[in-house]
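Z., the sequence and structure:
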Amino acid sequence: MEAAAESGNLASVRHIILVLSGKGGVGKSTISAELALALRQTGKKVGILDVDLCGPSVPRMLRAQGCAVHQCDSGWVPVFVDQEQSIALMSVGFLLETPDEAVVWRGPKKNALIKQFVSDVAWGELDFLVVDTPPGTSDEHLSTVEALRPYRPLGAILVTTPQAVSVGDVRRELTFCRKTGLRVLGVVENMSGFACPHCAECTNVFSTGGGEELAKHAGVPFLGSVPLDPQLARSLEEGRDFILEFPKSPAFPALASIAQKILDGVQKPGPD
């Protein structure tokens, strides 16, 4: 297994980060896409592996819908979303005939594709591979962790919203990380207040502080709070580079700070 890892397509990937949440709709894909853009802004080369097979939204967020996946001697060539080829993306969305096609698969077929994504995508040299996962703690997550484990020590970012219902589900994701031996890099609280586009005042639409309290209770780092920002929402809808185009928006410093904490965190040794 170790020999296969040393010669596999992930052999030149320095750090693999899973973006997890026990709850759907908390913004895992948003955090995955914006984290990749923020890391790219620091000069890193980043890949995104979208294993949310039933809801592959990252291609749209990065304006890569309709792109084709090609073959090379090493396997599938990921789609590069910029001319500099500093962000590479692989998603089941590239394999569907139309954007509206539903992935109606049972677990074994999903798990087989995840394993194929891990083994057969020719990523080349990457500083980070960000893995966007579906909600939950079931087959797809176990397949992803098991397939990735031989390649690099893994780290996980847990995404929640402030409400107690969401925090409770993400608490189960912490248990999943402990049981599977995943190092938790930290917790992100998404949709943490609404940032007014006119006065920049942040209003707590939901409750507040749930993510930070969860991180404190679990003894893991709290990476930061990302507000509901209309500029961020619009950039995701239009597939624009939020980090590059909206440096004065309320969400920008939060996302940039999270990326910096990730950069700082990966330098610390994880548990054996």
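The radius of gyration is 18 Å. The chain is about 40% helix and 25% strand.

Let me know what you think.
H.
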